[in-house]
Every structure is written in C-alpha cells, then in structure tokens.
Amino acid sequence: MTTEHTYSISRSSKASLIAAVLGLLVLVVLAAAPLWAGRADMRLLSEVFLYLSLACLWNLLAGYAGLVSVGQQAFVGFGGYMLFALAMFAGVSPLAAIPLAGILGALVAVPVALLIFRLRGAYFAIGTWVIAEVFRLSFAQISALGGGSGTSLPVALVRSIASSRSMREATTYWMALGMAVLVLVVIYALLRSRKGLALTAIRDSELASQSFGIDIWWHKFAVYLITAGLTAMTGALIFLQKLRISPDAAFNVNDWTAFVIFIVVIGGIGTLEGPILGVIVFFLLRETLADLGSTYLLILGAVAIVVMLKAPKGLWGMLKERTGLELFPLSRRVVKNKT
Amino acid sequence: MDWVNAIVQGILLGGLYALFAAGLSLIFGVMRLVNIAHGDFIVLAAFLGLTITTTLGLSPLVALALVVPVMAAIGYVLQRGILNRTLGEDILPPLMVTFGLSVIIQNGLLEIYSADPQKMSAGSLETASLSLPGDLNVGVLPILMFVVAVAVIAGLQWIFYRSSLGRAFRAVSDNQDIAQLMGLNKAHVFGMAMALSLAVVGIAGVFLGIRTSFDPSIGPGRLIFGFEAVIIGGLGNLWGTLVGGIILGVSQNIGAQINPGWQLLAGHLAFLFVLAVRPRGLFPRID
Q1: What is the pTM of this model?
Q2: Cβ contacts of A300 on chain B, cutoff 8 Å
Q3: What's the pLDDT at A117?
Q4: Does the ipTM surpass 0.90?
Q5: Which of A86, A299, B177, B253 has the fewest CB atoms within 10 Å, measured from its CB?
Q6: How far is A19 from chain B (nearest CA, A)?
Q7: Nearest CB to B261; choose among A116, A141, A304
Q8: Phi, psi (rounded to 5 degrees) for B175
Q9: pLDDT given for residue A130 in this prediction
Q10: Using CA atoms, how far apart are residues B2 and B136, in angstroms rounded to an integer?
Q11: Is B122 helix (H, G, I), strand (E, B) or coil?
C-alpha cells in the first residue's frame, strides 16, 4: 500500500496567520492609545510610526529596486515644506495638504529621477544627496517660507486641525499610525502583485530578470516615484507634528536618511519584517543610550558596520535563515496536502 | 574686474576640489569602491594637522610630512582590515560600511575637538599676495594649493601609468581574478590604492585647514564637492578631476558674485547641467 500525497502551492503559513491576528490586535491597541497613553508616550509612538514608514519606504527602494539612495531627506523636507506652503498660502487645510504634498512629491521626483538615473550604483547614492542639497539650498532662498531660519505654522492653522489640544494630539497620532499602516499595505500589495514579482526578481538578479523580459528601468522608475510620494507624505506629517520647519531640519541627512538606513540594515534589508524589527531595536537603543549624545551615534555607526560585515541580511535575515519564519506571506511554498 | 577676480579665484579653488576628487577617482578606478567617508577623512586629516601644528609648533606645510604617512597607514589598515571584506557584486556593503565610518569619524571628532570651528595658521603665507597686471591680487596660498594639486595629479598619473604599482592597479581594475593568477595579491593592491587615496586626502585636509575654518560636521559637503568634480571631469580620468574641480570652483564663485546665497547652489547646478547634457562627464575614461 503506497501512500499518495497531493501537493499544492500556498503563500500563507501558520506563522503568517498568527502574525496577522496578532498584528491586528496590536493595531487595535495602538489605535486606542489616546485612551491609555500619556502625552509623551504618544509623541514617542508617533515618531516610531513615522520612522517605520520611512524605513519601509527606503527598504522598498534599496532592498527591492536596488536604488540605494542617501538623499531621501529631499522628499521628507519637500513634503514638509509643501504642507506649510499649501496651508499658509493656498488656504488648504493642513489635513488635506498631506496627500497633496505626497502627489507633489511624486511629481517633483519625475525630473529628479530622469536626471539621477544616469548615475549607477554608489554614484547614484551620492547623486541623490546632491539633489537633497539643491532642495535645501533652494528652500533656504524662499523668503516667504522664512529663508534659512525657517518658519512656524500659524496658530490659527494649528487650531483648524481640531479645537482642543488633546484632540489635536490624538488626530496627529492617528495620522502617524495611519501613515505607517498605509505604507505597509501599499508595499505589501505591491509585492504581492505581478509588479512585485518582477521587483523581487530584479532584487535577486538584474541580469536574469532582464532576460525574462522585465523592463528594469520602468520598474525602478515607478518604485522611485511611489517612494518619493509616500516619503513626502510622511515628511508632511513629521513637520505637522513639529509645527516648525527650517531647511536644516527638513533636509537633515542624519535624521531622515542615516537613521533610516541603520534601521533597515540592522533589521534586515530586502524583507518586509526587517524594518519593523529594526525600528523597535533602534528606538530601544535610542531611549537607553540617547543621553550619551555623540557616543550613542558612535555606537550606532559601529553596530551598523558589524551587522553589515557579520550578518549582511540583518537580524530578521538571520532569523529567517535559521527558522524559515515569514510573517508577511510573500513567498510561495509547496505544501503537502493531508489525504 | 570683480568678475575676472571671481573667475581667477574660482580656478585656484578648483585645485583644492581636484585634491578632494583625485582620491575618490583613484579608488573608484581601481576597485569600484565609493568611499562615503571620504569627506570625513579630509576633515580628520585637517584635525590631525591641527594637533601636530599646535603641539609640536610646526608650520602646517611641515606637518604634511607627518599627516600624509599617517593617513596612508590608516588607509592601508582600513582597506585590509575592513573594506576588502565588503567588496563584491553587491554595492550595498561597501556603501553602508563607509557610511557607518562617516558617522563614527564625525562623532569621534566631535567628542575630541568639540563642534567649535578651528583653523590652522600658516603665518605670513596666509596674507602674502602677488599683484598681477590689471589690478588683480592673487594670494600666494591659493596659487601654492593649485600648483600642489597639479603636481599631485601629475604624480598620480605617473604612478598609474608608469610604475609597477600602477600596472598592478590597472591589472586588478581590468580583471581581479586574472591579476590574482598572475601573482598579484589583490588584497594588498587594494590596500595600496586606499593608502594612496588617503595620502592625497592628507594633503587636501591640511590645505583645507589652512584655507578655511573647519569643524567635524563639514565632511559630507567636501565629499559632495569631490564627487561632483569626478563626475564633471569624467569617470576614471585623473586630469578630468582637475577640470571638474575648476568648473565647480568657477561656478561657485560666479554664483557667489551674483548673490552670496547662491554660491553652493551654483556649483550643484553646474554639476546637474553637466549630468543632463554629458551624463558620462566631459572626458570619461571608463564605464
């Protein structure tokens, strides 16, 4: 008597189902934070969500499309400035200005991409940095937005978000959480789609994917625009929370790119779970070591180098290699059916 | 006359930018490595020069004799110890590791020297100037820097195309595996390339420190100037970096002449313009 098995292809696994249920629970608990968390906790959590969104976007760009950018602060700052400009000069309500800032960010990314896509690899990276510098120096020239010293969001506009202070803080908190969820959903949907399959192929081997007829330039271009738009939206939210913007803060390479890269590298590049793990590790490190000032940054730099040399796939990559664990059901696996 | 002056000063400033660029161009040519910490090494060299001049009471130009070998040694050890492990198909590891180094150097310098701007004093050399026909006054120091830049690039050019070390550089650049089969130790050759790159960085850093005030945060800006000069001049062309540096220096000075706030912007725009019309630079040598 031979036992016969049938096989099928499945994406979900028990781990991914459990992760989905737990993820939803965590989301509900986080969404209720205005009920249980203090003001400082909510600020910190908002910052975590916005960094998570920046990290996921950078991971999509570098980890999947192979576009290693050190100039994403160009779009963070651009989004922030667009929020201020739209709210102050066009009379758009700050909340409506956020998606508009995203659209404008994607639009401005078109000429930028056409120009810097001429550079390859590491030179592309520094090219993106030059673009961010051009943005910073240009916004510093606009005297209506406060020039080099920046400007604050007028009180009347701040009041228009919500009447009471606690309601305002809850609104910006929910928006930060919503932004992180939006970014995760967009990236997850993108990677599950046909385009995502092409992107994963490009990540694994450009040469092989090209020979399968994938238009690499177009895919990279599309990812660059999507990332720029969502990064600009995140930037708009960051500066809606700060209520003040200046060229040096808006286009800061350390805040909006270096930390984001550390998060992704430490967590695990090229996986969806990596940036989530990375952002948790990053904020744990920051909250315990931030008092050390520049020593903390020294440690962060050293940790990034060690991770890159010893575990180039990051913490999540190490875990995945050992256990095959995958929380977001992206890869396909063969499953033996019970008969 | 202001304009002629701005252009002449810009050309001389281009010499310093060429010094920033030459080291970058060299290591990219040999091993396709882009050192994100390049600018921070320039600042490190400036601080090293500062420490030597203040503790030993030497003139900055004499201090070069110490700074250059120390920087070269750092380069060799760094390449053999860390960077060689990151080289390969994937461009991400060298980028991330040098990015981490950049953060480490910046914050290390901040710990030791604080964020206050510093400057090296070169005595009477700083104020000495030559009167040129047509009411032009050109400082001796900028001229000296330009002459040194030309000499350094000529020297690198000679090493690259006339010496046995240069032959090794070109061999590993063309094909690492075959160079290895021919008895070259590529780990050592790469180490020598980085040593040479940081030796040039040593010269650039000391001159930077004499010319302007500096603090630990200005490294990335210097990396960008060097990078722009490399791309404008054309990848892999050492003399091209001098042309690129001059174009950058002249654009910045013309921009500053129109409006002081446009100095850096004008340089970046010149770079983007070249990128738009000649994506491979003006005189490219390699792909």
Answers
A1: 0.91
A2: 103
A3: 92
A4: no
A5: B177
A6: 30
A7: A141
A8: -160, 110
A9: 93
A10: 9
A11: coil
